[in-house]
């Protein structure tokens, strides 16, 4: 190799390629498997691939379709991502989303007279506070009473959905919404607009911003460092003076407020009122997004777009190829299974490792040559 | 590091907060002026399917097309459509009532060249159909329901719906005749007027032949909840109910459970006799084939919603072939068939009106005074929030 990289960059370059090529390879393998299934069913796989691409990313029209579908997933996925960095598996996204949306709608109705920017801000705050408190409750149960947060967050989803239905079918119902029980409609001034010359509402921007902020918060602040420390080893973190309890409550509040904001966006940008349709499984879909993104806020953006694209192409597969509606579930399942499987390949492919190993060896020789490589905790923390 | 866990607001945090608030304000409202002037539809993806002689119709379902219920009934209607000459049908199933619905409608219009859309779920109407109808004024949006309001909604929107409660009335007669205990059961998804009305008609039909008959009501609270539906049937069977019917999105579980418990059942939406071959009495079925076909014929003659050639509200019952009854099952006796057929004939020719005073609710209050009758399209019936005498259960607002 004639080209000489600076010694420190070389292994990083290889590992960056590993980070990119393994997921990309996984998607390709999944598409090949899917193509095989299509061929078995008598569809031309190449035509199917062309349709998937055309429907998801082939034009500005398709991109808008994909982005509109991915917007709510980004915000909602953070509800799982943030607590995961602290070592908690929270899947209460759906509950925080519907409650955030409900309270945002009610706040908007109460403030129908104030200027719309203020009204929208109040709606967003109401949604975030509600979702935040809801997930904070789960964090508190976990910290103070030792209740398993996965189970409690899952079960509280049902409570939240039942509460939503009860309120829109009862006390907060617009009496004229006969066959589709809903709150009163929000004034049009309180609708969240779209990007100029597109049909993508500003919810996407909030999603992108939230993911970027979450990334900085986790990776670049002392707070994030503390969270990762607790996630890496709770007891060790406590010994160096961190307070896992406080961190649990704060991170759960932040997580829930992202999902609550997703609910506010659904109300303000899409439905214009709160009703049973707020519960349309964005919260559940985003759990998948968070896990496939390996709990990284930046990867959430990409995975949300991938899922949005899959959903968008599912539409065209039905219409242009007469394939059953379950096709998109099969494709989604294949892609996610293969991506999750591919995680076991990290560190297993020699080509990606060679240089790093050499660099590690050189570094190791400098200090203690016989020290075996130490396994690192997920938070990449050395205490 | 030990100084970390203090949650006071520093200047830096304050600045961050202010920046975030400012960004929010900027995005939330500065551009609303622009956002209202939407771009020409699909201008960037151009080439809508060439408008040949064929009329492209899009049908959208909220669930799978073989759900033994609501969606299957519409899919069967659409299947009838695609056999017509000059009609092309594009379909999409499992479309949630979110932006996905709007995206599907838009894609059907822009990519498939659909001129007519049948989005069949209630929740598609507001906001998705209303928004798209403004954007595509040349496309006709026909929504299954009764939500269209003259003057408020765009002229390229219309509603169609069937008075399926007439079929429930006849099914109630069959049920009361067949029941040995006089105890009937009804599993209900949500206590909204159009569903409550089917229960009341069922009960009125049953009481027209057995004045002592009662109906146990169980509300599941969800359009599809197989576990609760099965539990409901089991608990009713335990209480001596021997005929059950339901109004949920798909009746399969109710029918299966009834058959397993050895009691009779009456269907909802489509013919479910295959699921319960022994106990299936009859059922209140949708018959969308006729409705869709007559829409297609009118449109091929050049009539549209916009030129007033097609009514904006298209409603009908047994007599107009919007709804029908499943063929009677083996357990149905001759007397039951005779009474049911007589009622059916009366409903078809208009001599029988289901909601004819005096009708009392199940608390004893008079809800329709003597001498008053509400024909099927009457607006009072659209607001039904009471349970007729004989129904055991309650609905709260």
Automatic annotation (TrEMBL), chain A:
It holds the Pfam family BPD_transp_2. It is found in: Cell membrane. The keyword Zinc does not apply. GO terms for molecular function: transmembrane transporter activity. InterPro entries: ABC_transp_permease. One of its GO terms (cellular component) is plasma membrane. It comes from the Bacteria. The keyword Acyltransferase does not apply. The chain crosses the membrane at residues 20-39, 69-88, 95-112, 118-138, 150-168, 200-218, 247-270, 282-311, 323-342. It is a multi-pass membrane protein. This is ABC transporter permease. It comes from Shackletoniella antarctica.
TrEMBL record, chain B:
GO terms for cellular component: plasma membrane. Residues 56-310 form the ABC transporter substrate-binding protein PnrA-like domain. Keywords: Signal. PROSITE patterns: PROKAR_LIPOPROTEIN (PS51257), TAT (PS51318). Pfam families: Bmp (PF02608). PANTHER family: ABC TRANSPORTER SUBSTRATE-BINDING PROTEIN (PTHR43208). This is BMP family ABC transporter substrate-binding protein.
């Amino acid at each position: 190799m004639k080209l000489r990289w600076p010694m420190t960059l070389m292994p990083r370059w290889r590992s960056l390629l590993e980070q990119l090529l393994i997921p990309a390879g996984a998607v390709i393998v999944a598409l090949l498997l899917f193509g095989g299934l299509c061929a078995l069913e008598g569809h031309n796989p190449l035509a199917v691939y062309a349709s998937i691409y055309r429907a998801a990313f082939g034009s500005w029209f398709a991109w808008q379709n994909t982005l509109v579908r991915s917007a709510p997933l980004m915000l909602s996925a953070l509800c799982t991502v943030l607590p995961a960095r602290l070592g908690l598996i929270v899947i209460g996204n759906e509950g925080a989303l519907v409650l955030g949306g409900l309270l945002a709608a009610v706040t908007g109705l109460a403030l129908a007279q104030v200027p719309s920017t203020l009204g929208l801000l109040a709606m967003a705050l109401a949604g975030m506070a509600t979702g935040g408190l809801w997930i904070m409750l789960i964090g508190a149960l976990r910290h103070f009473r030792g209740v398993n947060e996965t189970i409690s967050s899952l079960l509280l989803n049902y409570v939240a959905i039942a509460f939503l239905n009860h309120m829109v079918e009862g006390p907060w119902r617009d009496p004229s919404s006969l066959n589709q029980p809903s709150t009163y409609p929000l004034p049009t001034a309180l609708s969240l607009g779209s990007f100029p010359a597109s049909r993508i509402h500003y919810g996407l921007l909030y999603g992108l911003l939230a993911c970027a902020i979450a990334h900085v918060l986790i990776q670049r602040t002392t707070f994030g460092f503390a969270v990762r420390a607790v996630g890496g080893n709770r007891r060790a973190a406590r010994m160096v003076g961190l307070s896992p309890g406080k961190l649990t409550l704060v991170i759960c509040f932040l997580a829930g407020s992202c999902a609550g904001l997703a609910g506010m966006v659904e109300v303000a940008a899409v439905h214009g009122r709160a009703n049973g349709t707020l519960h349309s499984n964005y919260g559940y879909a985003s759990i998948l997004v968070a896990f496939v993104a390996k709990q990284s806020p930046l990867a959430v953006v990409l995975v949300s777009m991938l899922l949005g694209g899959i959903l968008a192409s599912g539409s065209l597969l039905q219409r242009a190829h007469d394939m059953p509606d379950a096709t998109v579930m099969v494709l989604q399942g294949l892609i996610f299974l293969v991506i999750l499987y591919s995680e076991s390949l990290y560190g297993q492919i020699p080509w990606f490792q060679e240089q790093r190993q050499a660099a590690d060896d050189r570094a190791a020789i400098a200090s203690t040559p016989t020290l075996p490589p130490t396994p690192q905790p997920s938070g990449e923390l050395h205490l | 590091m030990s100084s970390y866990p203090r949650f006071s607001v520093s200047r830096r945090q304050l600045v961050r907060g202010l920046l975030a608030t400012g960004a929010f304000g900027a995005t939330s409202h500065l551009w609303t002026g622009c956002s209202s002037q939407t771009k020409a539809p699909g201008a960037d993806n151009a080439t809508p399917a060439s408008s040949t002689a064929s009329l492209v119709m899009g049908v959208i379902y909220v669930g799978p097309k073989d759900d033994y219920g609501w969606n299957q009934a519409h899919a069967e209607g659409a299947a009838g459509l695609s056999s017509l000459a000059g009609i092309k049908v594009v379909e999409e199933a499992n479309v949630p009532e979110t932006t996905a619905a709007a995206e599907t409608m838009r894609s059907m219009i822009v990519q498939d060249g659909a001129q007519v859309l049948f989005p069949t779920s209630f929740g598609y109407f507001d906001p998705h159909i209303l928004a798209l109808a403004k954007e595509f004024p040349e496309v006709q949006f026909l929504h299954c329901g009764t939500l269209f309001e003259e003057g408020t909604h765009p002229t390229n929107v219309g509603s169609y719906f069937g008075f399926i409660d007439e079929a429930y009335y006849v099914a109630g007669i069959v049920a009361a005749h067949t029941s040995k205990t006089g105890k009937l059961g009804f599993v209900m998804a949500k206590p909204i007027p159009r569903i409550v009305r089917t229960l009341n008609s069922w009960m009125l039909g049953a009481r027209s032949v057995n004045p002592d008959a009662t109906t146990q009501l169980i509300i599941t609270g969800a359009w599809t909840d197989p576990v609760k539906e099965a539990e409901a049937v089991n608990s009713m069977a335990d209480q001596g109910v021997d005929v059950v019917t339901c109004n949920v999105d798909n009746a399969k579980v109710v029918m299966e459970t009834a058959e397993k418990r050895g009691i009779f059942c009456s269907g909802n939406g489509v013919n479910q006799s295959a699921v319960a071959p022994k106990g299936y009495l009859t059922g209140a079925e949708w018959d969308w084939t006729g409705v869709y076909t007559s829409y297609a014929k009118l449109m091929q003659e050049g009539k549209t919603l916009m030129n007033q050639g097609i009514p904006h509200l298209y409603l009908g019952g047994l007599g107009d072939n919007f709804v029908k009854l499943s063929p009677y099952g083996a357990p149905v006796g001759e007397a039951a068939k005779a009474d049911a057929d007589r009622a059916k004939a009366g409903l078809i020719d208009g001599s029988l009106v289901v909601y004819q005073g005096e009708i009392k609710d199940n608390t004893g209050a008079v809800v329709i005074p003597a001498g008053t009758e509400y024909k099927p399209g009457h607006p009072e019936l659209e607001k039904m929030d009471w349970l007729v005498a004989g129904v055991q259960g309650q609905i709260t607002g």
